[in-house]
Structure formats: structure tokens, C-alpha cells
């Protein structure tokens, strides 16, 4: 008698190189920056630029940055996402099988779907860990899953976790996390700055809801906290106009003005290069170099209790009718 089918849950985050060295970073960037949703330049124009100057110069610089945050468990993003999956598995017990994957790098989405299917999962909820929808993040997960299903004779049934930028569970977890972080400081910040990953302004013009959803998250969190939350956008790349205000520019201005700041990254489900190196290290340096005194970086939700409770709540709701 065959075992009854199981339900699978697949957490998906952006990705990471396998090691903090130039070769690994080059391989990761080649995959990431070749995605047509990430860089919306015709490939005939983009690939020579990517294969030329970018993959020749950027991997060494990025590898140095990764080395600053690498841990005994490897990449912080991979380690934290793995712990999130383990905590969610413990919360659900034997009712579901929880796995994790990276959109770029390993473990790959296709391999993770195959592993869940081999374990008997005929229904799988794929959960992109992006609170705010963006074609360059959320949509690429759907793309990758769909492309893999094209190779399967016997396809599992898939569901996808919707964006949760204004969900009460998400906002409640953010509120608890930010309040805990602020309570641990020895100063009261003048400015609470929410830094979201940047996108070219053109994506907003083309109809991407990302900018509006970031603003909605900050607005509702501000109401929950009872204090203003400013928004900025980090990680600019290339010469195109990006969403503004830019995080680095805003930090420099706050430093010059002598205003204390606590910065956090509500669009990231787990701490990673862009939060630990770009904000907590480089951002702090930019602020201090401009004359700032009191700076704090507040951690992402990660695998802490509020974040796991939020994930469990969201996943249970999306599994309705399957459990």
C-alpha cells in the first residue's frame, strides 16, 4: 500500500554565491544578472557588457564584501533561510514537509521541487520571501517554477504565497521586531529609516507596484508604531535613474545634520549582504564620515519568534483546503 500524498512548502529567497571568492561570485552574478526580469535591457546589448567589464571587475569587489559577513555556517542569507525552514517544519510537524531554495545559486528551485515530489508531495506551496511584489523578485520565482514544471511528466499542483506587504501578521511582526531593537539602544533615534532594495525608476513607470507597496508598508508600520517612518532605497547599480531617495544619500544628509538614526530593512526576510555589509557596515561609515554620531542597524525578522510566527500564519492561511 503506497503512503498517502503529502503537502510541501518551499521557502524561496533570492540567492547567494557558494563561497566568498571571486570565482563563486562570478558564477552567481552571471546567473542573477542574466535574468531578463532583473536587467530589462535587450540581451544582445546587455550580455557583452555583462560578460565584459561587469564579470571582469565586480566579482572581486563583491567577494570582499561577502567575506565581511560570511559565517561558520556560510552565507548569512542561506543559513537564516535554512533556519526559517527548520523552524517552520517544527511548527507544522508531520502535516507538511518544508524545504527551502534559492532563486539563484543552490539549492535551486527545480531541485527542491523534485525532492519534495520524491518525498510524496503532490501539492506544493511556493513561498517567495518578498513582502513587496516586484517583477524582478517575486515574478522570477514563478518563472523558475513554471520552467521546471515544463520538464516534468507528472507535475505537482502548485500554489504561490501572495505578496504580504500590508498583511496584519507581517506588520505585527515588524512592529514587535523594531520595538525590541529600539528598546535595546542607548539613544532615542531622531529618524527611523526603512531602507528597501532599489529598482530602476523605469520599472515603476511600466506598472510595477513595488514602490507603492514599499510606501504602504512604511505608512502602516508608522501608524502601528505611533511615530514617523521614512523610506529610502538602496543598492543602486548602473547609470539609470533609480527610485529615490537613495539610502546612502539620506544617511550622509542625516550625518551632516547631526541627527541620530536607526535603520532597518523591512523588504528583506533575512539578513544578507545588502543589510549586513551595505547598511550596518558601509552605511554606518557613510553616516559617520558625514559627521553623524548615533547610528543603529536593526536586524531583519530572520528566524526570530515574531518572524516565524508570521510565516506560520501566512502559510497556514494559504494551505486552507489542503490541510
Describe it.
The protein is of the alpha/beta class. The chain has helices spanning 22-32, 43-69, 76-92, 109-118, 138-149, 168-183, 201-205, 210-225, 247-257, 273-289, 305-318, and strands spanning 6-15, 96-104, 121-128, 157-160, 191-197, 230-234, 261-264, 295-298. It has eleven helices and eight strands. Helix 5 (138-149) links the parallel strand 3 and strand 4 (157-160). The protein is globular, with a radius of gyration of 20 Å.
Summarize this, please?
The protein is of the alpha/beta class and 323 residues long. The chain contains 11 helices and 8 strands. Helix 10 links the parallel strand 7 (261-264) and strand 8 (295-298).
Write the layout of secondary structure elements.
Layout: E1 6-15, H1 22-32, H2 43-69, H3 76-92, E2 96-104, H4 109-118, E3 121-128, H5 138-149, E4 157-160, H6 168-183, E5 191-197, H7 201-205, H8 210-225, E6 230-234, H9 247-257, E7 261-264, H10 273-289, E8 295-298, H11 305-318
Helix pairs in contact: 1-2, 6-8, 6-11, 9-10
Radius of gyration: 20 Å
Helical coverage, percent range: 40-55%
Number-wise, the strands total: 8
Low-pLDDT residue intervals, each spanning 5 or more residues: none
- Strand count, sense and closure of the main sheet? 4 strands, parallel
> In the CATH hierarchy, what is the class of the largest domain?
Alpha Beta
Note the run of SSEs as H and E: EHHHEHEHEHEHHEHEHEH
CATH architectural grouping of the largest domain: 3-Layer(aba) Sandwich
Mean pLDDT: 97
Query: Approximately how much beta-strand content do the residues carry?
Result: 15-25%
Q: What topology, given as strand order, has the largest sheet?
A: 2-1-3-4
Which fold does the CATH topology of the largest domain refer to?
Rossmann fold
SS-based class: alpha/beta
Question: What's the structural domain tally?
Answer: 2
How far apart are the first and last residues' alpha carbons, in Å? 22 Å
Q: What characteristic shape results from the CA principal axes? A: globular
Summed up, the helix count is 11
Amino acid at each position: 500500500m503506497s503512503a498517502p500524498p503529502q503537502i510541501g512548502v518551499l521557502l524561496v529567497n533570492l540567492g547567494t554565491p557558494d563561497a566568498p571568492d571571486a570565482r563563486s561570485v562570478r558564477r552567481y552574478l552571471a546567473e542573477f544578472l542574466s535574468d531578463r526580469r532583473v536587467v530589462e535591457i535587450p540581451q544582445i546589448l546587455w550580455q557583452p557588457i555583462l560578460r565584459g567589464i561587469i564579470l571582469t571587475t565586480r566579482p572581486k569587489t563583491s567577494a570582499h564584501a561577502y567575506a565581511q559577513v560570511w559565517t561558520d555556517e556560510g552565507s548569512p542569507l542561506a543559513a537564516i533561510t535554512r533556519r526559517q525552514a527548520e523552524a517552520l517544519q517544527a511548527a507544522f510537524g508531520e502535516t507538511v514537509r518544508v524545504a527551502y531554495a534559492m532563486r539563484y545559486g543552490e539549492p535551486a528551485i527545480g531541485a527542491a521541487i523534485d525532492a519534495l515530489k520524491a518525498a510524496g508531495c503532490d501539492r506544493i506551496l511556493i513561498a517567495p520571501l518578498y513582502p513587496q511584489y516586484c517583477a524582478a523578485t517575486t515574478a522570477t520565482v514563478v518563472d523558475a517554477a513554471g520552467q521546471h514544471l515544463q520538464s516534468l511528466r507528472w507535475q505537482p499542483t502548485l500554489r504561490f504565497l501572495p505578496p504580504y506587504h500590508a498583511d496584519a501578521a507581517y506588520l505585527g511582526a515588524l512592529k514587535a521586531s523594531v520595538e525590541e531593537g529600539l528598546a535595546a539602544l542607548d539613544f532615542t533615534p531622531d529618524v527611523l529609516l526603512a531602507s528597501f532594495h532599489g529598482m530602476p525608476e523605469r520599472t515603476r513607470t511600466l506598472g510595477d507596484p513595488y514602490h507603492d507597496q514599499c510606501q504602504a508598508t512604511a505608512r502602516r508600520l508608522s501608524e502601528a508604531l505611533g511615530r514617523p517612518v521614512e523610506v529610502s532605497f538602496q543598492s543602486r547599480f548602473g547609470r539609470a535613474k533609480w527610485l529615490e531617495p537613495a539610502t546612502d544619500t539620506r544617511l550622509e544628509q542625516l550625518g551632516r545634520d547631526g541627527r541620530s538614526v536607526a535603520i532597518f530593512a523591512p523588504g528583506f526576510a533575512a539578513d544578507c549582504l545588502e543589510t549586513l555589509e551595505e547598511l550596518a557596515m558601509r552605511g554606518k561609515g557613510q553616516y559617520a564620515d558625514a559627521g553623524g554620531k548615533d547610528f543603529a542597524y536593526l536586524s531583519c525578522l530572520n528566524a526570530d519568534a515574531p518572524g516565524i510566527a508570521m510565516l506560520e500564519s501566512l502559510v497556514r492561511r494559504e494551505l486552507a483546503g489542503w490541510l
